[in-house]
């Protein structure tokens, strides 16, 4: 029989939740979302959108309920150190899978720029491909497409440069990382005011980033003709920045939740997994942005 | 090694909840494991029915039963159902049941997440079934999904609404496996009983550890790839269209970057089962435990960097082709090491031949054969002849049916006594073994010949020179399908009754398999280890 | 040649009994890779035999070890397990020994494969260059040095015919004893032009060109198929090459060019065609190019390929221009290809006329080549 003080040995203290209705609700919401999405992109937009919105509502309810349950359990002291480690490791592996998701799109960008387009332009082993696309010259950003006929794809008029809004956004996002770390210091010191202030600053910066990015999209669409239809330059640009933007949005929502919880004194120096999970996520989003800035905007 | 504490006796302070809520709301690793296993069993018959249709259509030249598109839709969904609906859930079910018991944990690390990972599967299955019927029930449904499970554009861009359902079914399946994998890795890293060091874990746990890591790394890649496909289909992007500067081959790279590790995702859990079954029935410890663990690690790592051997014919540079060829051939090193270690485990042992052991031996033989044809296929110039012929089909069915499915059967027979508390009918089990093994070979061995003679994959109709091989193959296929009714019967029979199983149903249980599952009674209590066992 | 039933029985015997062995090493070609008919495929064939033989030896060893173990280490025989076996010298060194042995086998195979691969990829020099275009579901061959174009469609035969799904109306003709370079591409989805006797496969990718080559050593007709799933008609697009002597090839080229010139002259002539002529010509063009999708009776495949019989466009005089435009330029977002670049004015005029008058369609106009010229 174990007599060690380490909680690791005490299986009875490991909190096994009671049967829960939240997972099945999550499944239901996700199914509705996907089912509705398929209908709405296949000429059944009304029915599809309704189902999709219902799915969203179910998922919102779910997030509120499931996370609420976890918060209650946490506050009532049901979690020991081992449970906390499970959460941390779970979050770590989740972010790892997210990283793999972004690596996919970066991988595509590299493949297209370094292998596909040179070949189409007449370099390398598949040089002969250029007899199909006479006159195609490969440059990145891709402002002239292999297919000169513009019925299907319309090239962008100019490329998105890195030194205007993107640079501003880089500064904003990097400073948000700093303010978040400052909030973390506050938390570690037990200074709740610093924690809340740091979080509010981070949220503000995240929101500004969001709107700047929105303006940039608007500008790209209207002034530069850079759209999803602009060949692979537009495709990769929007795919990468779009999924990043989505993650910023989710991160900001998570930060808002954490800020509210901080204001209610939910976190202590020793028990603040939720804060750290969100902080990791936010830093991850930061790192992705730096890669984006370098490979999508700059190089 | 000895186990100081097994389990305490006040574990039943709350038993399982009653009624449907027990299953739908479950947070218990055994109940969720059971659901995974039953789901897999259902999908086995669902995917099997598709295979029966395929073999019936190919029985004779000429298109007899349904349209070519329906045929290719069945080919596509047979693969998706068997890979994502059958093998992976069955392996995940075993992981759920066994890993916490083997490492002395009270449950999985994140029980509610565990429930979510399971229940996403039925949702994905419904989406997949919708993808089959959608082209017929929705206006402008377009072509059914006729691409094969690789979903290669531009054909998949041409497909109708069914492809969208397939894409989202894959998204759902992907979320499910990523969440399950996160849970399993966390459980293995964080929930081991004191003294259960990593290098004491049963091989099955190690196998699932690498499997889960692979899934976390590559499942998002597939999700990304099908997302891009969705955008190409509906939102005007040109990732896979040369006119806009894209490349259909890009999708192949992404798909196989996922797809090749996926093969190891299917194989590794079964190799883990083998690592328990063979020592048990040879009554001596596993030969080269460390080598097997590292071998699996090397296999997983190599598996991540050789994907393009599925696409030698795409026209890569000479350097890339040579790299992928040599990398692929090198995979024979960890695989050969594993198979040899299993043979050496039998060597100078004292073997009896219960059903799991029979499957184990058959796996070693037939999987070696798949390895040999695998090396043949890895050789680029020769592969340019075999590419997309039935030879490939024969090869990967030899790899996946013995390598993955038979391993799961071995696991089922090995653990049925533990799960149900009853011994299965050994005689029926052995009949099932001989029936499946012989009919399996009858089905797929001739496909090597039709493939070498040039018969392509994924064709609804063939010229008469391939008739004999296909007839034999179809007859074998029907027998193979039929044998699974016996499998179902054995399982139901064992659940309903039979000789009472002791805590250690096998004489050799726990020789060299240091797991803690045998310290629990059969069937184990609802909550396994409410107090952690200590391993010295 | 054995009668079919005996062949069936013998195949059953071999497959049923012999899965332990790698039976592909059997001498009978029916069980082995297609016999090669070019220098390159011969080289590949030898490589295939090397890996097959190595594989067979490995399988024999593994099987032998397992059988030995099964006989000698049985509980029923009273075998006593050696609990320390894995701790002996062999247990300590097996993890080095096995990989070293496997690695040496691997390197043997890889080095041999690498040199063959170099031959496969040295496709630059060529006496004849042919562009092979896959489309749903036929092959088009363009001789790059001569102005010759061949469209190769499935020849419809009964499922009992020895050439069922193996024959085309117009095969590719190639000379023996010369280096032939193939530029593979596609007009719609992925295809794979594969004829195992003469050429290692590369896939046909839309928008890209893949290369492969051959040097045919024996005259004869070589038959292959499409080896990359291309949808509904994937099983129905055989690839056939007729390999002839260089002199016969030259003669064929001259005759073929004359024939093409005549057809072109006919099409560009300002002649006004009569309905019967157009209908006859149109049916021919339709059968060759349109039938695979829209079917012989013009009914299409519901939900996949639209019906032409009774369609609005083909029955409404006002929609004639639309009809011509769809045939010439294709229809975006569907499988309908642009036929303008592939067919001449006369062919398109004829097929449009045919579609508007056949199967009970009532639009009734005659379309002349000059109308098509105007619409291009």
Automatic annotation (TrEMBL), chain A:
Its EC number is 7.1.1.9. Its main location: membrane. Residues 10-299 form the Heme-copper oxidase subunit III family profile domain. It is found in: Cell membrane; Membrane. Gene3D superfamilies: 1.10.287.70, Cytochrome c oxidase, subunit III, four-helix bundle. PROSITE patterns: COX3. GO terms for cellular component: plasma membrane. It comes from the Bacteria. One of its GO terms (molecular function) is cytochrome-c oxidase activity. The chain crosses the membrane at residues 22-41, 47-71, 92-112, 195-215, 235-260, 280-298. Keywords: Membrane, Translocase, Transmembrane, Transmembrane helix. It is a multi-pass membrane protein. GO terms for biological process: aerobic electron transport chain. InterPro entries: Cyt_c/ubiquinol_Oxase_su3, Cyt_c_oxase_su3_dom, Cyt_c_oxidase-like_su3, Cyt_c_oxidase_su3-like_sf, Cyt_c_oxidase_su3_a-hlx. Belongs to the cytochrome c oxidase subunit 3 family. This is cytochrome-c oxidase. The lineage of its organism: Bacteria, Pseudomonadati, Pseudomonadota, Gammaproteobacteria, Thiotrichales.
Automatic annotation (TrEMBL), chain B:
SUPFAM superfamilies: Cytochrome c oxidase subunit I-like (SSF81442). One of its GO terms (molecular function) is heme binding. Pfam families: COX1. Pathway: Energy metabolism; oxidative phosphorylation. The chain crosses the membrane at residues 35-54, 74-95, 116-138, 165-191, 203-231, 263-282, 291-310, 322-344, 356-380, 392-416, 428-449, 469-492. It catalyses: 4 Fe(II)-[cytochrome c] + O2 + 8 H(+)(in) = 4 Fe(III)-[cytochrome c] + 2 H2O + 4 H(+)(out). It comes from Thiothrix caldifontis. This is cytochrome-c oxidase. It is a multi-pass membrane protein. It is found in: Membrane. Keywords: Copper, Electron transport, Heme, Iron, Membrane, Metal-binding, Respiratory chain, Translocase, Transmembrane, Transmembrane helix, Transport. PROSITE patterns: COX1, COX1_CUB. GO terms for biological process: aerobic respiration; electron transport coupled proton transport; respiratory electron transport chain. Belongs to the heme-copper respiratory oxidase family.
From TrEMBL, chain C:
Its EC number is 7.1.1.9. The keyword Iron-sulfur does not apply. It catalyses: 4 Fe(II)-[cytochrome c] + O2 + 8 H(+)(in) = 4 Fe(III)-[cytochrome c] + 2 H2O + 4 H(+)(out). Residues 277-359 form the Cytochrome c domain. GO terms for biological process: ATP synthesis coupled electron transport. The chain crosses the membrane at residues 51-71, 92-113. Subunits I and II form the functional core of the enzyme complex. Electrons originating in cytochrome c are transferred via heme a and Cu(A) to the binuclear center formed by heme a3 and Cu(B). This is Cytochrome c oxidase subunit 2. It comes from Thiothrix caldifontis.
């Amino acid at each position: 029989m174990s007599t060690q003080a380490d909680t690791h040995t005490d299986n009875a203290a490991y909190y096994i939740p009671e049967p829960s209705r939240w997972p099945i609700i999550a499944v239901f919401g996700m199914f509705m979302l996907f089912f509705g999405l398929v209908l709405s992109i296949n000429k059944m937009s009304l029915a599809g959108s309704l189902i999709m919105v219902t799915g969203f509502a179910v998922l919102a309810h779910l997030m509120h309920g499931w996370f609420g349950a976890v918060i209650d359990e946490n506050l009532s002291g049901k979690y020991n150190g081992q449970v906390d480690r499970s959460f941390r490791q779970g979050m770590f592996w989740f972010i790892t899978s997210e990283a793999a998701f972004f690596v996919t799109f970066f991988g595509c960008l590299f493949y297209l720029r370094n292998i596909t387009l040179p070949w189409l332009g007449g370099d390398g082993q598949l040089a002969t491909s250029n007899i199909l696309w006479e006159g195609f010259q490969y440059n990145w950003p891709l402002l002239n497409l292999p297919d000169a006929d513009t019925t299907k794809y319309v090239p962008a008029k100019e490329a998105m440069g890195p030194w205007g809004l993107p640079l501003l956004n880089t500064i904003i996002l990097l400073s948000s990382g700093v303010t978040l770390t400052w909030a973390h210091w506050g938390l570690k010191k037990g200074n709740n005011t610093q924690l809340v202030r740091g979080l509010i600053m981070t949220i503000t910066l995240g929101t500004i980033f969001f709107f700047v990015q929105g303006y940039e999209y608007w500008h790209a669409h209207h002034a530069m003709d850079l759209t999803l239809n602009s060949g692979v330059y537009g495709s990769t640009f929007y795919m990468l920045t779009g999924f990043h933007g989505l993650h910023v949005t989710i991160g900001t929502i998570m930060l808002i939740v954490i800020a509210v919880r901080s204001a209610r004194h939910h976190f202590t120096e020793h028990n603040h997994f939720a804060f750290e999970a969100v902080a990791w996520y936010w830093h991850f989003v930061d790192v992705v942005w730096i890669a984006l800035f370098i490979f999508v905007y700059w190089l | 090694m000895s186990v100081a504490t097994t389990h305490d006796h006040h574990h039943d302070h709350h038993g399982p909840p009653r009624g449907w809520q027990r299953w739908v709301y479950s947070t218990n690793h055994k109940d969720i494991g059971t659901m995974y296993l039953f789901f897999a069993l259902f999908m086995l018959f669902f995917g099997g029915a598709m295979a029966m249709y395929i073999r019936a259509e190919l029985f004779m030249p000429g298109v007899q039963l349904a349209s070519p598109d329906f045929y290719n839709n069945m080919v596509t969904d047979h693969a998706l159902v068997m890979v994502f609906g059958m093998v992976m859930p069955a392996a995940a079910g075993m992981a759920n049941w066994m890993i916490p018991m083997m490492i002395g944990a009270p449950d999985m690390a994140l029980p509610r997440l565990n429930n979510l990972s399971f229940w996403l599967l039925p949702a994905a299955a419904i989406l997949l079934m919708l993808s089959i019927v959608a082209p017929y029930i929705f206006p402008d449904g377009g072509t059914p999904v006729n691409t094969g499970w690789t979903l290669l554009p531009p054909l998949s861009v041409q497909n109708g609404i069914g492809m969208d359902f397939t894409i989202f079914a894959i998204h759902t399946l992907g979320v499910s496996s990523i969440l399950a994998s996160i849970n399993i890795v966390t459980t293995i890293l964080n929930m081991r009983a004191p003294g259960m060091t990593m290098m004491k874990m049963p091989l099955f746990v190690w196998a699932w550890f690498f499997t889960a890591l692979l899934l976390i790394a590559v499942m998002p890649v597939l999700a990304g790839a099908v997302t891009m496909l969705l955008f190409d289909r509906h939102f005007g992007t040109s990732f896979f269209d040369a006119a806009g500067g894209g490349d259909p081959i890009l999708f192949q790279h992404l798909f196989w970057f996922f797809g090749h590790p996926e093969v190891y995702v299917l194989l590794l859990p079964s190799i883990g089962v083998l690592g328990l079954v063979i020592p048990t029935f040879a009554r001596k410890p596993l030969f080269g435990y460390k080598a097997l663990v590292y071998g699996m690690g090397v296999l997983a790592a190599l598996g991540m960097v050789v994907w393009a051997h599925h696409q030698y014919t795409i026209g890569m540079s000479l350097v890339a082709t040579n790299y992928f060829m040599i990398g692929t051939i090198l995979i024979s090193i960890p695989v050969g090491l594993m198979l040899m270690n299993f043979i050496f485990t039998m060597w100078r042992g004292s073997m009896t031949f219960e059903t799991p052991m029979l499957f184990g031996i058959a796996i070693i033989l037939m999987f070696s054969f798949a390895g040999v044809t695998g090396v043949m296929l890895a050789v680029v110039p020769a592969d340019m002849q075999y590419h997309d012929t039935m030879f490939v089909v024969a090869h990967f069915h030899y790899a996946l049916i013995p390598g993955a499915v038979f391993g799961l059967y071995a696991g089922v027979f090995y653990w049925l006594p533990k799960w149900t508390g009853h011994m299965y009918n050994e005689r029926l089990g052995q009949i099932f073994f001989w029936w499946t093994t012989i009919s399996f070979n009858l089905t797929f061995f001739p496909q090597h010949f039709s493939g070498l003679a040039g018969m392509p994959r994924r064709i609804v109709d063939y010229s008469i020179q391939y008739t004999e091989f296909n007839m034999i193959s179809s007859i074998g296929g029907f027998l193979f399908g039929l044998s699974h009714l016996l499998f179902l019967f054995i399982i139901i029979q064992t659940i309903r009754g039979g000789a009472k199983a002791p805590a250690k149903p096998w004489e050799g249980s726990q020789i060299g398999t240091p797991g803690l599952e045998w310290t629990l009674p059969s069937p184990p209590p609802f909550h396994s280890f409410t107090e952690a066992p200590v391993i010295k | 040649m054995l009668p079919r039933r005996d062949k069936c029985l013998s195949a059953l015997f071999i497959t049923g009994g012999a899965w332990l062995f790698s039976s592909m090493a059997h001498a009978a070609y029916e069980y082995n890779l297609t016999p090669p008919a070019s220098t390159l495929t011969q080289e590949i064939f030898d490589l295939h035999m090397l890996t097959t033989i190595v594989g067979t030896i490995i399988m024999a060893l593994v099987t032998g070890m397992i059988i030995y173990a099964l006989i000698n280490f049985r509980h029923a025989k009273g075998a006593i397990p050696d609990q320390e076996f894995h701790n002996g010298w062999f247990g300590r060194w097996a993890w080095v020994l096995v990989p070293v042995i496997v690695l040496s086998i691997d390197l043997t195979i890889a080095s041999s494969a690498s040199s063959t691969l170099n031959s496969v990829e040295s496709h630059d020099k060529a006496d004849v260059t042919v562009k092979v275009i896959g489309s749903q579901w036929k092959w088009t061959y363009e001789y790059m040095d001569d102005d010759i174009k061949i469209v190769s469609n499935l020849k419809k035969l009964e499922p009992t015919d020895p050439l069922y799904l193996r024959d085309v109306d117009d095969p590719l003709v190639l000379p023996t004893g010369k280096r032939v370079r193939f530029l593979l591409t596609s007009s719609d989805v992925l295809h794979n032009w594969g004829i195992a006797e003469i050429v290692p496969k590369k896939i046909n990718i839309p928008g890209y060109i893949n290369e492969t080559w051959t040097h045919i050593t024996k005259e004869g007709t070589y038959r292959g198929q499409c080896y990359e799933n291309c949808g509904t008609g994937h099983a129905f697009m055989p690839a056939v090459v007729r390999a002839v002597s260089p002199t016969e090839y030259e003669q064929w080229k001259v005759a073929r060019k004359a024939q093409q010139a005549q057809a072109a002259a006919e099409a560009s002539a300002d002649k006004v065609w009569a309905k019967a002529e157009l209908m006859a010509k149109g049916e021919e063009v339709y059968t060759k190019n349109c039938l695979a999708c829209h079917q012989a009776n013009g009914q299409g495949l519901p939900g996949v390929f639209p019906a032409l019989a009774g369609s609005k466009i083909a029955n409404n005089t006002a929609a004639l221009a639309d009809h011509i435009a769809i045939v010439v330029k294709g229809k975006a977002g569907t499988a309908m290809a642009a036929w303008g670049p592939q067919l001449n004015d006369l062919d398109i005029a004829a097929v449009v006329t045919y579609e508007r008058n056949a199967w009970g369609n009532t639009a009734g106009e005659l379309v002349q080549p000059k109308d098509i010229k105007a619409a291009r």
